[in-house]
């Protein structure tokens, strides 16, 4: 029997991995990484969330890449399959940006997106 390798839910760019590592090293309270999720809100319907993760909770996926660790909430997994997390610094902002093939629309202000579950994803 051949076991197929598990698909990584989210891929980090080198820039995102470097920023996650920097945030992990700079916190006063030890963290295991950054927690990524999605929540209902905004004019397009959903928004990405990024917060400190002090622990890995049951059902969460862990992505480790380039010394960085990102913990993905169970409810976000089906919306993030195949997505890439980047970190961009521009003239007036610096932020994590998600390049997600599951986005069906986004609002003009860039704060929210419409997401569909990845093809073949099963709700957790």
UniProtKB/TrEMBL annotation:
Pfam family, one: Fe-S_biosyn
Signal peptide: none
InterPro entries assigned to the protein according to its UniProt record, in alphabetical order: ATAP, ATAP_core_dom, Fe-S_cluster_asmbl/transfer, HesB-like_dom_sf
Superkingdom: Bacteria
GO cellular component terms attached to this protein's record: cytoplasm
One example GO MF annotation: 2 iron, 2 sulfur cluster binding
GO process annotations (BP): iron-sulfur cluster assembly
Domain Core: 10-111
Family: Belongs to the HesB/IscA family.
NCBIfam families, A to Z: iron-sulfur cluster assembly accessory protein
Protein name: Iron binding protein SufA for iron-sulfur cluster assembly
